[in-house]
Amino acid sequence: MSVGTSLEGSAAVPAGEGKRSHPLSWVPTLYLAESLPFAAVIMVSVLMYRSLRGEFPTLTDGRITLYTALLGLPWSLKPFWSPFLELYRVKKHIALLTQIIGGALFAGLALALKAPPVIELSLVIFALLAFNSATHDIVADGIYLDSLSGPQQAKYSGVQSAFWTLGSVLAQGALVWVAGRLEGTLGIRPAWMVVMGVLALFMLLLAGYHSRMLPSGKLSTTTVSSFADARRSFRTVVDAFFLKKNLWWMISFVLLYRFSEAQVTKVAPLFMRAERSVGGLGLSTEQVGIIYGTIATVAFVLGSLGGGAYAAKIGLKKALPWLVMIFNVPNALFTFLAFATPTSFVIITASATIEKFTLGFGQVALIVYMMQQVAPGKFRMAHYGFATALMNVGVQIPGMLSGTIKDAIGFKWFFVYVLLAAIPSFVVAFLVPFREIKEDDPDEDPARAGRRPSMAGPLLLGASIVAVVALGVWLQLR
Asked: What is 1-7+16-237's CATH superfamily?
């Protein structure tokens, strides 16, 4: 789940300004609308392309993980256009527009599944859907932050998280299960056409509901009145970010904490669907939908709650070594499954449930660290948005390469490899410094500090990320 990246100058106003709607009348549905497209682009697409492999044999696991990882780039890049959304005074209008466009794109995806060049067309539509959804995330989080007071934001954060997870359950669980049931009767393409059609209907119904119930949020009172102003404001926010103490340690932690998990998460559904003759578990689309759409998702929510409570009780600094160890338990679980290849659906489901629980428990460390160490300062919301964008990069790049590595060495040795790939996570978790946060720290206000950070660091970081992405694409497509 993302946090709005609008400038700190857009402070939240008390609930009740603008349209007076009770938060429970729009917070659940707003975050359902935010979660459904994300889950469809990042997770459901993997299983859809796996089902289409019978018709397109060249669609290897490496290509599937590469394509679907690249589709996640808009969520990593959204801080670069979020300041320009400040030019629009009413965020509700953008939210409604992106929900309608999302519905139209899902409908277009359903129609594209009838066309001969289905892979090319679907990838283009998924890319447009990703950009549209990332834009919706920015304004949706902006509405949440603008329309609710600080205490209300904390009060309804659990509702926000629960309905974000519900969107994942509906997309990755229920709708994948429906696709699996229909594949045997209607055929693969018609089955996934039904799924995309249902998602289109969901988005359009949510847009219609939100046209009446969604608050307008606070009308913008910032001095951003042109693209030039937006660029200047963006530079101020970026300068403040790169003046933070221990910044490069923080960036390393955010980029590397999920290095191993990102690869397991991409390959695990393919491993479950792959035939036993090639080292997979031989499950059907329907069975994967049941596993990840029911008890495993509940386990993820319980793990998140448990990890949050544990970190809050003893403090993140003390909890971090244990959290990183628990977070990497799935590496050992999938290594066991790859070598044992059990036939028992109960054992596989139990393993997936433990996987999701430990991921939820351990992922709390990264979220809390970004909130408590990366975000604090004058531009708290924007800098948290930068951190989540970097986190997405840290997931996308290893996820993009994971299928290529698996194709080269097979499922068994891939999961042995991910045991070793967890080493960077442990290194940054044990070495990352914790700084004492001081309110109104002048080092994080470049205007008052009278200095600007060197652009060499940001440019080097950006160039490195682009180079790794380009190398991964070249290795897979050559």
From this structure: MFS general substrate transporter like domains (1.20.1250.20)
